[in-house]
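Self-study notes.
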Amino acid sequence: MKTRLKELRARERLNQTELAKRVKVSRQTISLIEREEYVPSLLIAKRLSRIFKEPIEEIFIFEEEEL
């Protein structure tokens, strides 16, 4: 799964700590998601979707073989 999280965070001028507070997760969780080492829960994905006003599918891009 690819993610646009880092790009979207930069667009909003948020650092990882600020975003983590808004999403109610640790900064390390944001870092892991950005490095594509952690697949977030649906709840976390929905929170990110609301913060960035983007559909979940525009934040997280699934490769065909992953589906």
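Second protein, same conventions, sequence then structure:
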Amino acid sequence: MRFTKDMSIFEALSADDEARAVFESHGMACCLCIGAQSETIEAGAILHQVDPDTVVAELNQLSGDQS
């Protein structure tokens, strides 16, 4: 699976069990947030003052996608 900035946080958490650790490593406790179902990775990252591209790149490393 390829993660993108416009996918919901919930979708990312559902796609890979290790996604939670990526979010938490950036101070994003998304699995506990009610907004995770509709909020995008980009919006959540910006809210937590994290670079969305960095988060997406780390998520894609989970799936073996280096692009």
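Instructor comment on the second fold: The first helix runs from residue 9 to 15.
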